[in-house]
Amino acid sequence: MKAPGTISLRTVLFLSMLISSWGCSDMTDQASFRSQDTPHVLPPAGSVPVTGMELFDGTTRIENPEPATATSIQKGRELFGVNCSMCHGPEGRGDGKVGEVMAPPGPPNLHGDTVQGLDDFDLFVRLTYGYGRMPGFRTRLAASDRWHLVNYVKDLR
Ligand code: HEC
Hints:
Elements: H1 9-24, H2 70-83, H3 85-88, H4 97-100, H5 113-116, H6 120-129, H7 143-155
Heme C binds next to helix 2, helix 3, helix 5, helix 6 and helix 7.
């Protein structure tokens, strides 16, 4: 006869098995190192890698690393012609061939107050991850090219 309030050995065993099996489901997610591997070193907070995998997470505010020089704006203009003008129009007025047939009406005039009211970081996030029906360019354009585009869009003002 058990005293009330005590638990049997079987219950203890069952609970300990349950707890140890919970742990197992995380094994695939853990950081793993091969033998002789050094631990992975994370980049400094706020840095934007220009080579390799991009680690920008879209929430940490970062400064535009590309000064808005004539060269940068010119690069942005060329990139715009190839990647954006079919929707946004050659001058960014929202009248590209693809943009024109969008219903409900699509690309906004990039010269307008709404877009010009956005700062560099907000524009970069939209170009990186996309915005509504606009695709993101995270995997299509290098981060530096997206910043050149930001400089071009701001120059339309
Ligand atoms: C497939 C068509 C398409 C392409 C390509 C495209 N956009 Fe857009 N863009 C849109 C649409 C549509 C919107 C408005 C959002 C909506 O209606 O869903 C938009 C919105 C924007 C905005 C305004 C965001 C806001 O907060 O109001 C900016 C800035 C912009 N695009 C810049 C660009 C740039 C720069 C490129 C090229 C790198 C580009 N877009 C490529 C369709 C496009």
